[in-house]
Each structure stands twice: as C-alpha cells, then as structure tokens.
Design goal:
Blueprint lengths: L1 H10 L2 H16 L2 H8 L1 H6 L4 E2 L5 E2 L21 H4 L8 H4 L24 H7 L3 H4 L1 H10 L12 H7 L4 H10 L23 H4 E2 L12 E2 L5 H5 L8 H4 L4 E2 L15 E2 L5 E3 L6 H4 L4 H4 L2 H5 L8 H4 L4 H4 L3 H9 L14 E3 L5 E4 L6 E3 L17 H5 L3 E5 L2 E12 L4 E10 L2 E5 L2 E5 L2 E3 L2 E3 L2 E5 L3
Antiparallel strand pairs: 1-2, 3-4, 5-7, 6-7, 8-9, 9-10, 11-14, 12-13, 15-18, 16-17
Length: 458
C-alpha cells in the first residue's frame, strides 16, 4: 500500500498542479492568515477579532478601534475603512494604516471616501462647484475691480489656483488675505483658529466632542450643523454671522452708544466685538442657519455659479407668505421635478396650519404672513431687509498696501512669498442701512424684478 502511494506521488502530473498551488498561495497572502504567514505569529495576535460590516465588508480595524460615531456612520454600518481607507484586512497597525487618510472629508480624496458609490456620490460631485469651494465670486470680482478682467464672470477657481500656481497682483492679494475661507483648505494645515477652517465636508459636518466625553475623541459626524460651524467663515465682509447674533465688530474703543463700556470680547482672529446690539429675530427664537438655508444652497445644485444671488434660492417671502403658497411648498417637498425650494423643516399641523420645525431644537414655529403694509403696491420694489434690518455694520475707506520688501504666507501654496499685503479702513459704523437699487436680471431662467436692497460696504 505504501509502495503504491509513493509510486503515485512520483508519477503525479505536478506541472498541472503548480498553477493551482500558486493561486492558493496568492489567496493566502491576501487574507489575514496570509499576513500572519508573512510576518509571523506576533502579527496575528494584534488583530484578535474580524468584523463583518452591514455592507458585507470584512474588517479587522475594529479589533483595535472602539470609537463610537453617529448612527449612520456607526461601527457596524461603516467601520473604519469605508471612511479612512487603509487596508482593513492587514494584521498589523503598520500595514493597516498604509494609504489611510486622517480626514475623509477633504476634497482631494472625497471621491474615494464620502463620495464613494452607495454613500454621498452626488453631494461630493456637487459640492466642488459651490461658491464655498470655488470662491468664484470673490476671485472674479476682485480681478474685475483691479482691471485684470473685463467683467466679473470669470470661471477661475481656488482649485485651479492651487493646481496651476497662477498668480497676479489681485490673485496674490487673494492668496494671502482670503486664502483660508474655502473648502479646499486642508483641515489643521495651519495653527490656531485657521486650522479649524476648511476640510471639505468636515468643515460643516464635523462636531468636536465636548471635554470629558467618554471614549476616544473621535469627532461626531452630524447633519444638524450648528451656528458655530457657519460663523467660523461667515464673519468677514458683510459680517452676516456676527450681525445675526447681535455682535458688532468695534474699533477697540467701545461702541457709538452713550454709556457703553469698552469691549473686552474678542474673536479668534483678535478682532474686538461688542455683544449689546439687537440680534436677528430668528436668532432670538432659536433658529440657526440650516433652518432657513436649503440643501441646494449649501451643497450645490450641480452648476457652477459666479455670485451669491445665483446660488441662493430662498427669500424672506418664501416662508412669510400666504397659506396657499406655503401649501405649495409643503406639497413640492417630495417632488423632485418641482422648481420650488426644498425647505425640509416645513410641516403641516392637524388643523392644516403650516409650521417650521427647528432642525436642532425641534421647536415648532408658526409662520406668520406678511403685514398688509408689506403687500401695498407702493412697497412693491422694497426687499424685506430694506425695512426690517435695524442695523448693519458699515466699513468705509478701505485701503490696501503691499510692501514688496517683505514676505507673507501664501495660504494656497503653504509657504511665504515676496509681498506683504495690509488692509486699512477709515472708520466702521452702525446706523440705519444705506439703500440701493438692485437692477433687474435673470437667475436660473427666472426674471428678477428691480429691487431696493440694503448695501453693506466692507
């Protein structure tokens, strides 16, 4: 019997078996067991548990990582690899972390992470075309005012400036003074408050855990975006994020009101603010930015726009209107073909009345129709802000100086280059807003009438 077995081994067609043996070895090396075979028993001990995610993906990361995220991105649903990449089947930290990204929201990698098929592919595509990512309005208007373009409709974007290194006097000014308020900025690239800006999707959707929170300090992913995330960038130029809260940027000497104290409150960038002014009525009621501004306004509609008014699709009158118009809004929420804004907080009471539910506080707000005086024909051209804005910051006498003998950080390039830009202003005040005429134009194939609006120089 043994002689026959030995003879069979000698006569076996090994040339036919070799390819199958080679495939077996390759499959072995592609598994956690293969990692152990290549690196020894020590590697296998470091990954003691294999987890199957909801998608069916096998992952070993959760053997070492115990962070808890939100429900949609839970350990069982997404694991670690779906967002952070790397090698989920490796048996050692060194191999598992190879090719990993710390911030999955960065626009440089978003197609492989947040924008992968089955997750947020449409959002990842559209967000790159929004003004928060392109800065087209700032760049094109700046170049037009400086005589570098014939109009303010240029398609030049932040991403192109980063990729090509294109520069000019106006662009150098943008790179050094404006180059951190866009989504292409890598999160924590710069120290201090600048490090909290940017990060692509993470700029809005990450919420840092509070001090003392149990477990590992993994930021929480949220769609309930707080006011602080928006104001992190929206606090210059028109200073809308500050005015909304009743905060006024002072000159450091106090305020124009008699009897006011000197301000000791400061913004992260060192500017002094005074908190004693009337905030927006929506702020006093507990509403935040995402309660009014729609998904298309923030995430984009798939088109690249040059100016803010082209991307914004709501007005005060969108919600403060008649019952018939509100009913159309609510009915159009589930209609993908509807051209009406999708204000997801609008809901209908049992008695038929329509209210808005706060996305953060979950309070219900009955929507009041406009006053009869607002609907008077003599006020037809007036925007709501023209009458209802109690005050706005107005910065006058803005001057810019460039010292060619000194260097300054180019925030898109990440290194100092020749030319130091400095801004000066004659004064800043708060009074009744200056009014101006916004000429008739067309947005999204819809004719817009001439309108009286407030002007916020700054």
């Amino acid at each position: 019997m043994q002689d026959s077995f030995k003879k069979g081994l000698r006569d076996a067609p090994w040339a036919l078996l070799c390819p199958f043996w080679a495939l077996f070895c390759l499959a072995l090396l592609a598994t956690p067991l293969g990692t152990w075979a290549a690196q020894g028993p020590k590697a296998l001990k470091r990954a003691e548990r294999v987890t199957r995610l909801g998608s069916g993906q096998i992952e070993m990361c959760l053997s070492c990582h115990f962070e808890e995220l939100d429900k949609a991105h839970s350990r069982e649903a997404a694991g670690c690899w779906s967002c952070h990449l790397g090698n989920p089947l490796a048996g050692t930290p060194e191999l598992a972390h190879k090719g990993m990204v710390l911030n999955p929201g960065e626009l440089q990698v978003v197609e492989k992470t947040c924008g992968r098929s089955g997750c947020h592919a449409t959002d990842a595509r559209d967000i790159k075309k929004t003004l928060m990512a392109t800065n087209r309005g700032i760049i094109s208007t700046l170049r037009f005012y400086w005589g570098e373009e014939d109009d303010n409709e240029s398609k030049l974007t932040v991403e192109e400036l980063i990729r090509t290194g294109k520069n000019s006097p106006a662009l150098d000014y943008f790179r050094k003074l404006c180059g951190t308020c866009h989504l292409w900025l890598e999160r924590h690239r710069y120290p201090g408050f600048l490090g909290e800006k940017g990060g692509g999707c993470s700029a809005c959707h990450l919420k840092e855990r509070e001090q003392g929170t149990k477990g590992a300090p993994h930021p929480r992913v949220t769609k309930a975006i707080g006011l602080e995330n928006c104001v992190r960038c929206h606090n210059r130029s028109g200073r809308i994020g500050l005015s909304y809260q009743g905060k006024y940027e002072s000159e450091g000497y106090g305020t124009p009101f008699d009897g006011a104290d000197f301000s000791e409150s400061q913004l992260p960038d060192g500017r002094f603010i005074w908190k004693g002014l009337p905030p927006d009525v929506h702020f006093t009621k507990g509403l935040v930015c995402i309660d009014c501004h729609t998904r298309k306004e923030a995430m984009g509609d798939g088109s690249s726009h040059a100016h803010l008014e082209e991307q914004v699709e709501i007005k005060c009158s969108t919600c403060h209107t008649g019952q018939k118009e509100l009913s159309r809004l609510v009915a159009g929420m589930d209609d993908d073909k509807s051209r009406l804004p999708k204000i997801t907080g609008l809901k209908r009471e049992i008695d038929g009345a329509i209210f808005q539910e706060g996305k953060l506080n979950k309070k219900r707000y009955r929507l009041s129709p406009p006053d009869d005086r607002c609907m008077s024909p003599v006020h037809e051209r007036l925007s709501c802000q023209a009458c209802h804005s109690r005050w706005v910051p107005q910065c006058y006498g803005c001057h810019v100086r460039m010292d060619g003998s000194r260097e300054q950080l180019d925030k898109l390039k990440g290194e100092a280059t020749p030319g130091l830009w400095q801004e000066y202003r004659s004064f800043i005040r708060l009074e009744s807003p200056v009014l101006g005429v916004k000429m008739a134009h067309t947005i999204r194939d819809v004719a817009q009438k001439e309108e009286i609006v407030i002007l916020v120089p700054g």
